[in-house]
Amino acid sequence: MIEISDVFKTYETGSKAVRGISFTIGDGEFVFIVGRSGSGKSTLIKLLLKELEPTHGRIVVNDMDLGKMPRRYIPKYRRSLGVVFQDFRLLKDRTVFENVAFAQRVIGVPSRIIRETVPEMLRLVGLSAKYKAYPRQLSGGEQQRVAIARALINDPEVLLADEPTGNLDSFNAHEIMKLLEEINGRGRTVIVVTHSQEMVDEMGKRVITMERGEIIRDTGGPIGLPERRSFKR
């Protein structure tokens, strides 16, 4: 699914944000990428989203070499990655339904299909009863569930969650991680970027630890992967 080979990223200031990292993530894996502020996690996310280009090395995602990808293919590539952020990034003036539907409307999905797929996603994240609510009427945990539904609505190959529990209390953080584990159980590749070692220890998943732009620990590769199933009918 993802292959990172000897990747470096040096900024114009001379700062080496990523220093020769290499790893692979298999289809259907659940992987934590852990590190403190300044460890290179944010740069790695931007490299995977093709928001930055590596100074050296090769990144392949789902058999696509990002270094050889024409610019016109980048939007389609990014849609193959469902991304969830710490701050939810919901549209405050739109309902839960419309927040999730937005990801399909922008790529021209017909309304009749949206009326089928959005309720399906809201059932998955446990928010069917709140489809008419606005973000201000939801708890932090509920807002993150909306963000996850939106990230999954276009059936991405990978769900990339950047500090998904950073703005949540311990109860809601635990519930969101259970939801991500359930999503992974359906065969979806899930990558969680975090600085929370406590959360990582509780989950018992593969952990890639970064420090000063380097990988200092990788607990292992894919084992016993579930069969990948589409979220769509």
TrEMBL record:
**One Pfam family here:** ABC_tran
Q: Where are the transmembrane segments?
A: none
Q: Which GO terms describe its cellular component?
A: plasma membrane
This chain's protein is named Cell division ATP-binding protein FtsE
Biological role: Part of the ABC transporter FtsEX involved in cellular division.
Q: Does the keyword GTP-binding apply?
A: no
Which locations, inside or outside the cell, does it occupy? Answer: Cell membrane
Q: How does it assemble?
A: Homodimer. Forms a membrane-associated complex with FtsX.
State the InterPro entries in the record.
Answer: AAA+_ATPase, ABC_transporter-like_ATP-bd, ABC_transporter-like_CS, ABC_transpr_LolD-like, Cell_div_FtsE, P-loop_NTPase
Native source organism of the sequence: Clostridium porci
Topology in the lipid bilayer:
Peripheral membrane protein
